[in-house]
Amino acid sequence: DQQVKQNSPSLSVQEGRISILNCDYTNSMFDYFLWYKKYPAEGPTFLISISSIKDKNEDGRFTVFLNKSAKHLSLHIVPSQPGDSAVYFCAACEGDQGAQKLVFGQGTRLTINP
Amino acid sequence: GAVVSQHPSRVICKSGTSVKIECRSLDFQATTMFWYRQFPKKSLMLMATSNEGSKATYEQGVEKDKFLINHASLTLSTLTVTSAHPEDSSFYICSAYRDPNEKLFFGSGTQLSVL
Question: Is the pLDDT of residue B100 over 60?
């Protein structure tokens, strides 16, 4: 049972445009969500997170939106840059304190075309 | 879909003991597996890259004699925390590539608590 799903395995966006990566979850107990970015041959690096008490969190070109009723979150990157080409993982957990287990989606490969 | 199984999901041990964590790819062969340690605020630290049939590649600052990695087959990698201490308490997560499309699948993690 996949509790965190990224239904698009890949996404191609033109440089300068907006990239939107989507993630759905099924466990209503999840209340903290994260996005990680991964380049080939490297481990994932933390990008941005959001708590369920918010519906939006912004950090520079990256914005994460959370729709709790739909159990859906999205990552917006604007404007997209070639260096954003990577695999993006969303993850979820119960609570943002301590060592709660992260549950990952399967990732979406984003390609930014010049 | 592809599944990566990690076992055990939780282990509590006394200081000074060794703990082995297994990571298995259940329906695909994984030539490369990764081991991560999860820190507070959910940052993931890549500890090492495990390649089947060869020595693991450790990231800077990770003690290879303390965190022993063995990737003896295309479906199994193990991480052994030797002489565990309370500061080793953490979540340890493995992931595996399914070639050739380089999709990365994560294990369910192991919560290690060292008393």
Answer: no
Rounded to an integer, what is the distance from CA A37 to the centroid of its chain? 8
Chain B contact set for A4 (CB, 8 A) = none
Strand, coil or helix: what is A83? helix
Tell me the CA distances in angstroms from B39 to A20, A46, A54, B30, B44, one per residue in order: 28, 11, 23, 26, 6
Q: Which residues in chain B have their CB less than 8 angstroms from residue A34's CB?
A: 42
Contact: A43, B34; criterion CB under 8 Å: yes
| Gap from B44 CA to chain A (nearest CA, Å) | 7
* pLDDT digits 0-9 by tens, A29-63: 998 898 988 887 666 777 898 989 999 999 999 99
Q: Check if B96 contacts A (Cβ < 8 Å).
A: no
Q: Do A65 and A74 touch, CB atoms closer than 8 A? A: yes
Q: For residues A44 and A55, is the Cβ–Cβ distance under 8 A? A: no
CB contact under 8 A, A2 and B46: no
Mean pLDDT of B71-100: 88
Q: What is the spatial distance between Cα A2 and Cα B48, in angstroms, rounded to a whole number?
A: 26
Identity of the residue in B34, B91, B103 whose CB atom sits nearest the CB atom of A99:
B91
pLDDT at B17 (0 to 100): 96
